[in-house]
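Quick one:
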Amino acid sequence: QVTLVESGGGPVQTGASLRLSCSASGRTVSSYAMGWFRQAPGREREIVAAISKNGGSTYYADSVKGRFTISRDNAKITVYLQMNSLKPEDTAVYYCAAKTSYYDDYVGMNGSVYAYWGQGTQVTVSS
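Output:
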């Protein structure tokens, strides 16, 4: 069982930066592949970025490539999402998710594979 808590969201203006954090608690957290997802009002949940359990493999949605960076610190049991050059279309509730992974380089790109989810943190980007 893993409990995930996101933080770091808030209101910002276009072009600003934010760093989201996802703190995890539970046994063998380093065995989990992690992902960040977002859901805007009236839209389906979409993947933003994902990272393998050893941090060596990552995936980014096309809409955030070059602007967002996912990373993890297994010693601190935390996953980060550095978001730069934010745009109004990045406005959404951002969720952290975890999936048990046998393979070191597995990256989960589909939300349906993740078993554990945080409560979400709101990011609002104004123009």
